[in-house]
Amino acid sequence: MGSALPWALVALCFALGIASRSVSDTFVVFVPALQHDFDANRGPVTLIYSFALLVGGTAAPITGWILDRFGLRALTVFGVIAAAGSTALASQASQLWHLYLSLGVMMGFGAASLSGILSSSLIGRWFPAHRLGVPLAVSWSASGVGAMATFPAAQYLIDTEGWRHAYLVFAALTALFIPLLLVLPWKKIERGAPGLAKLRETAAPGVTVSEALRDWPFWALTSSFALTSIGIFSLVPQSVVYLLERGMDGPYAARAMAVAGFLTPLGMIGFSWLADRGGRRLAAILAYACSIAGVGALAMVRGPDDDFWLWTFVLLFGGSMGSRGPMISTLATLRYRGAHFGRIYGLIAIGMGLGGFLGAWIGGVLHDLTGGYAAVMVLSVLALATAAATLGAEAGARERLSRRPPAA
């Protein structure tokens, strides 16, 4: 474990996360240019991104099957080809539905291949249970950290050369990973740390997919993913518009949300560190409490002078926004790692994709029906509170299990 290899693999997962999820998230920067070029309304254009979230979740069982059947090399190469191909094809789109296939379906598959399933399986082979949370959080933080570089780069390329050229540049940069992935020592990587590899060799094959589907923890983790995504994505897409309608200056509101994005990866790592040191149940409940309090702070923003409540929202909601993903992934890895882990985790990850899609859609519908944001905020709080109860219970059960003395 003294080797630098475990953290080099964390860095690899981080870089692949930027190449897939961060590049996918830059879509919000492309929206005005796409609307202009395709003479389309906002809804059909933004639905492309919702489609990518949906496919990214529902494709997880397929990528899990690829992992279990063909191994880590095949999964990473497949994911990079899908991510690079999606932006390359998008640059050549002549109709809007071409973007649904490229940036929606293909990028969704790429993100599913290079995100939670990859990092949980790969990093789980190299770190013991009591040190797993922080490395997973670092890999998960790629989307937030990467956005600090990819968003300005996308905007610059669009302004100077156009959106098609920008997507071609992203495709070329992502494709650079392919030669590296082909020459990595995957047999050594898949064996994992010597001590952990020996434990896996002497352990049982692990829980099967059918056994997991009959297991309460499986449904607890899946529903936690789904409810958390509903709670977050029902609110986030409308947060800037909410602030503008309260009289906030546009650039000021955008800077506030940029700070929230900067705090997200810090919160991922911080809450995961707390989970490893102080207990996963405590960390989960505290993270959800911060998000719920953040929603309350946002509700208190009534005018352009409510800076205190705005920055309280940024600190609490932004700092906790992405913290549950690594926690859920850690619990899934500890409970289900084995020969069938990829497929089981893939099924669990469906909750995240469906929750993100439903949250963004239902949040918009509630605003249109009510003409305000109260119902949206109530939905967010109820979803987060229910997820807190579910994930807290599962984390507590895992802690009790880890404290049991080994059988004689």
TrEMBL record:
Could you confirm whether the keyword Aminoacyl-tRNA synthetase appears in this record? no
Q: Its domain of life? A: Bacteria
Parts of the chain that traverse the membrane = 48-67, 74-93, 99-120, 132-154, 166-184, 218-236, 256-275, 282-302, 308-332, 344-366, 372-393
According to its UniProt entry, this protein's organism is: Reyranella aquatilis
- Keywords in alphabetical order, please: Membrane, Transmembrane, Transmembrane helix
In terms of PROSITE patterns, this protein maps to: MFS
What region holds the Major facilitator superfamily (MFS) profile domain? 8-398
Protein name, as recorded? MFS transporter
